[in-house]
Design a protein that fits this description.
Strand order of the largest sheet: 3-4-5
Order of helices and strands: HEHHEHEHHEEH
Bound molecules: zinc ion
Distance between the termini: 18 Å
Number of helices: 7
Structural class: alpha+beta
Shape: elongated
Largest sheet: 3 strands, antiparallel
């Protein structure tokens, strides 16, 4: 959401997770205390953040604080579904693919080149951006 390259692991194989994180130079965000006790993490070879909160905004706040990230780095520049960079789409491109009221009220759209999901700066987008800006204060 804030524009950092992220990947989701629903695979419960810790070895695969650790191998991939090291290979792709990623930081692990986890609520798994067992995973945090892995040697590769305790000796600092692989960076990991143990997420303490249940609340998603507090989770973002913690990650931003602990990793020194910018909460408004590149907001909504990546697809929330598949992590690909979004590209601008013209009104013509999206005409028959968004609800009519959206087409009538929004002027700027971006699209995921992979899953074809369309995003626009509607009220949800504005509300999320406001929350992200509040975090950075
Ligand atoms: Zn996508």
């Amino acid at each position: 959401m804030i524009g950092y390259d992220t990947t989701l692991f629903d695979n419960r194989d810790d070895k695969y997770l650790i191998h991939t994180a090291l290979a792709e130079n990623r930081v692990i965000l986890t609520r798994d205390t067992q995973l945090m006790r892995r040697r590769v993490i305790t000796i600092g070879e692989l960076k990991a953040v143990f997420i303490r909160n249940d609340n998603p905004l507090q989770q973002i706040q913690q990650v931003i604080d602990e990793l020194g990230l910018d909460s408004v780095f590149k907001p909504f520049s990546l697809c929330l579904e598949c992590n690909r960079p979004l590209v601008k789409a013209s009104k013509e491109d999206i005409k028959d693919r968004v609800p009519p009221y959206v087409y009538q009220t929004q002027t700027q759209y971006v699209e995921c080149p992979h899953c074809r999901r369309i995003y626009w700066q509607g009220t949800h987008w504005q509300a999320m951006l406001k929350k992200l800006q509040d975090i950075s204060k």
